[in-house]
From TrEMBL:
Region (Disordered): 1-20
Protein known as: Protein PRD1
Entry-linked PANTHER family: PROTEIN PRD1, PUTATIVE RECOMBINATION INITIATION DEFECT 1-RELATED
One GO term (biological process): meiotic DNA double-strand break formation
Length: 905
């Protein structure tokens, strides 16, 4: 450097170099770049001279007065000398000088730009492309820096493959520092697509398999041996970058057909052990140390590396088995345990464990050991909406519970149930969203907990399941169109909750009563509403099937009162019309069988006497359309048992509909079909079918249809009526055997032609009433009681009062004392319930009938009831009632004499 004043023009240096090579500085001096280049290139130049030149150039590069002409006229002049200075410093093992030269090279590339940078990269790459790199730490560092900081720097490398191969070969060097720089260089070359795998067409003579194997093995050995986290980071980064290029797939994934001849010499193992097994074991051993590092970046990178290898599309069974056998899962669980809920670490750990879990049998034991580590993680990820690994954590929990439920303590199961219930609550309220997979897994885990042997011993579980099932249903079923995937999961949870309620001993079932009531309530609100909209919206048959299964469990397995109440609720919600809508919307055998099964269960409860059995026996042959149903009823079945069975089931369905004001077809069409059935079949039922039961049903259905058509323009068939009346008179049937519709009962007692068969039925009623005071139909919600009879008498629209008086007169002549007592008792009870009915009985001749009792040798209990009867008539009597004073006088005298005789000793 020379100083000739601030404004002196450039002139030749003392060495005779051209004046243009002397570049000015802001201080007024100049620097001859040719002299500097010569000194830097001289192998014999003293180190302190070289150091001085490097320092001077470093200062000059920061001077705009020097930099501008250098960039304009001599951009490449200093690049080669700097590389030679680096090489000289390496030969002298002068680390300080090498560092100084390396720093200047980086500054030159940055200040001058592509011309200098390209030359530096090309020269450095050429030097590093051959021979040992044991002395070239700083040259490696310099080239690595340039590749990292200069855009497109790899384009300046003359022979990238040779450089790459020499770098790989020098990974055998023992120095951690050098291997770290080599690994960084290899990593940058991979990112810049300057590897043999990026230019396969130009590298026909390169054995990629051998290169890959060598690189992988050497890199893993470095990772295994080093304790330096910086080296680990470079190694992991390189392996990840190359793995994304599928450079190691052949080696790690055990596809023997792809392994080239270079490996064949090593494949002396049996067919069961792939020749690359040692590399996989090395990989497993190498990642353990990094997993235990205290550097979070190293741990996360190692987990990402494992995840990438395991998530390959190729067959990874060998890798999975080896990693599990080599206890890598234990290390990952340990990382997770110590993570302190560090989110990147949690995410990476769970991703790896999820892939290891795909090999369930091998991984099961590891999962059991590490399961306690998952619980705090489960709580952590469920607190964050849409956490990236929320579903993976849940899947791991599900795998453990489903396969090893016995290893969980009661407190752990309760803790999990509590956490999952909280998720569903917050999701339902809109506070915390979740993806579909998460929702499905939450439901599945709760189901597995309920199925576990110890579930009935978890005190809080019923209340947790009650809340969880409510939130699951309310967040999905009302929005079934948007939650089609989720609805089946929420329904399965509800079904398992119901089954859970019904299992266990009596004590355990009783404590789950609230849960059972909650499930039934949900069915009556959300599920029934869905059924009502399903016919309109055309929702999926899978959801329909799940709902109907739940209904069937309630109707078949809960206590009698709940069955009855639920059946009434369904029937009163237009069930019969809905059921045919389902079968029309989903014309499959499965839907048909389930719908008829539910219908039969409802009929069992609302009609009693297991009338639903007729539907269960014939559902295969029953049509899915109500019009076809009534058409089938009007056919002759005397020679066809299957048709006769169908007709019995149809009669049951039609009669059950009558109680809930449902019309499957028009009234005229219904009457026509019933009449056609009577005319063609009469009261003939196949011997396999209980004739008295079906005749009773037929009588009530016909009476109901005639009753609702009374006063309308609907024409009826007198012949069908006569036929049925004849059958009623000749064959056995029972008025009390089935739930009675008031309209049907009223119509029957309006028919004078039926006086004789109805008298017999009323005598049976009187007998039963005196025994039980109330007639209760088994398995039915309908009570046939004295109140119904009293209302019919009071209405005055039937001949029931005359029938009872006529019956009383008849049994006074021909019956037993018990029969007389039962009839008198019923009449007396009717007057207690409805005193105003006394006029109907007096006009029917009850006074004469009672008078004849006093003249007969009956016991005091009958005469006592008669006295009560007389008192009730007189108590409510109108003027017209006692108009016939002679009759009352005679009756009073008889009653008085009877009373006196009873008082005599």
């Amino acid at each position: 450097m020379e100083s000739d004043g601030e404004h002196s023009p450039p002139h030749a240096c003392g060495a005779g170099h051209r004046a243009s090579h002397s570049l000015p500085t802001s201080a007024g001096g100049s620097v001859c770049v040719s002299c500097a280049a010569a000194l830097l290139s001289s192998a014999s130049a003293p180190s302190h001279h070289v150091s001085h030149v490097l320092a001077s150039l470093s200062l000059a590069l920061a001077d705009p007065a020097f930099l501008a002409p250098l960039r304009a006229a001599h951009p490449r002049l200093l690049a080669v000398p700097l590389v030679e200075a680096l090489a000289g410093a390496a030969a002298r093992r002068d680390a300080a000088l090498a560092t100084q030269a390396s720093d200047l090279a980086a500054d030159l590339a940055s200040a001058v730009g592509p011309p200098a940078a390209s030359e530096l990269v090309a020269r450095l790459a050429h030097v590093l492309s051959s021979g040992s790199l044991v002395k070239h730490f700083h040259m490696l560092h310099c080239l690595g820096f340039l590749l990292n900081s200069i855009k497109g720097a790899s384009a300046y490398i003359g022979d990238a493959v040779s450089l790459f191969l020499n770098l790989v070969n020098n990974l055998r060097l023992p120095s951690d520092e050098i291997r770290g720089e080599i690994l960084f260089m290899l990593y940058k070359l991979s990112l810049l697509n300057a590897t043999p795998w990026d230019n396969i067409c130009d590298n026909d003579n390169v054995d990629l398999s051998a290169v890959g194997k060598s690189l992988l093995q050497l890199s893993l050995e470095v990772l295994l041996k080093t304790q330096n986290d910086a080296v680990r980071l470079n190694c992991i980064a390189l392996l990840l970058a190359l793995a994304k290029k599928e450079a190691f797939d052949i080696l790690l994934l055990g596809d023997l057909s792809l392994i080239k001849s270079a490996e064949e010499e090593e494949s002396t193992q049996t067919d069961d052990v792939p020749p690359n097994a040692s590399i996989i074991v090395l990989f497993a051993d190498a990642v353990k140390g990094s997993l235990l590092s205290t550097n979070l970046e190293v741990q996360t990178g190692t987990l990402d590396l494992i995840f990438h290898f395991l998530s390959s599309d190729a067959n990874i069974c060998v890798v999975l088995q080896t990693l599990v056998d080599e206890n890598v899962a234990d290390y990952v669980f340990e990382v997770l345990r110590l993570s302190g809920n560090n989110d990147p670490l949690v995410i990476s750990s769970i991703q790896v464990l999820s892939l290891l879990a795909t090999s369930e049998e091998m991984f099961k034991e590891k999962l059991v050991i590490g399961f306690s580590t998952l619980l705090p993680v489960l709580h952590y990820v469920t607190e964050i909406p849409f956490h990236p690994v929320q579903s993976q954590v849940l899947r791991l929990v599900w795998i453990c519970i489903a396969n090893c439920s016995g290893i969980l303590s009661l407190s752990q199961e309760e803790q999990i149930a509590c956490t999952l219930t909280l998720i569903l609550r917050r999701n339902d309220s809109g506070e915390l969203g979740m993806c579909s997979e998460t929702f499905a897994l939450v439901c599945s885990i709760l189901i597995e907990i309920m199925r576990s042997p110890s579930a009935h011993d978890i005190q809080k579980l019923p209340s947790l399941i009650e809340e969880a099932s409510k939130h699951a249903i309310s967040s999905t079923l009302p929005h079934a169109y948007d939650s089609a995937f989720l609805v089946p999961h929420s329904l399965r949870l509800l079904k398992e909750a119901l089954i859970f309620c019904l299992e266990g001993n009596t004590d355990k079932i009783s404590v789950k009563k609230d849960l059972e009531d909650s499930v039934i309530e949900i069915c009556g609100t959300y599920l029934l509403h869905w059924l009502e909209t399903a016919v309109v919206d055309g929702n999926d048959d899978e959801t329909l099937g799940e709902i109907l299964q739940i209904f069937h469990i309630i109707l078949s397995s809960t206590c009698h009162n709940k069955q009855l109440k639920f059946a009434e609720m369904l029937a009163s919600s237009s069930w019969f019309s809905l059921s045919f809508g389902f079968m029309g919307l989903f014309p499959t055998d499965h839907v048909k069988s389930v719908v008829y099964l539910i219908t039969s269960s409802i009929v069992d409860k609302i009609l009693g006497c297991k009338y639903g059995e007729t539907i269960r026996d014939a559902y295969v042959y029953l049509p899915s359309d109500p019009t076809e149903l009534v058409y089938l009823l009007g056919q002759c079945s005397s020679e066809d048992f299957n048709l006769a069975s169908c007709q019995c089931a149809i009669l049951v369905i039609l009669y059950a509909c009558s109680f809930y004001n449902e019309r499957l077809v028009a009234d005229s069409q219904l009457l026509s079909s019933v009449e056609q059935y009577i005319l063609l079949n009469g009261g003939k039922f196949p011997y396999e079918i209980a004739g008295s039961v079906m005749l009773t049903l037929l009588v009530h259905l016909y009476a109901f249809v005639r009753g609702i058509s009374f006063g309308c323009t609907i024409q009826h068939s007198p012949e069908a009526e006569r036929t049925l009346f004849h059958v009623m008179a000749c064959k056995e049937w029972d008025l009390l055997f089935i739930r009675v519709h008031p309209i049907a009962l009223k119509w029957l007692f309006q028919k004078v032609e039926l006086l004789e068969p109805l008298s017999f039925q009323m005598l049976n009623f009187c007998r039963t009433f005196c025994e039980d005071r109330t007639v209760v139909l088994l398995n039915s919600s309908q009570l046939v009681d004295i109140k119904m009879v009293a209302e019919l008498v009071f209405s005055g629209e039937t001949s029931l009062s005359s029938l009872l008086v006529s019956l009383l007169n008849q049994i006074i002549k021909d019956g037993t004392e018990d029969e007389v007592f039962s009839v008198v008792n019923v009449i007396a009870e009717i007057l207690v319930i409805s005193p105003c009915s006394s006029s109907h009985f007096t006009s029917s001749g009850v006074i004469d009938a009672v008078g004849s009792i006093y003249c007969s040798p009956y016991s005091s209990r009958i005469k006592t009831v008669c006295s009560l009867l007389i008192f009730n008539i007189l108590y409510s009597a109108s003027a017209m009632t006692v108009y016939w004073e002679d009759e009352w006088l005679a009756l009073t005298m008889k009653q008085a004499r009877c009373s006196l005789s009873l008082r005599r000793p």
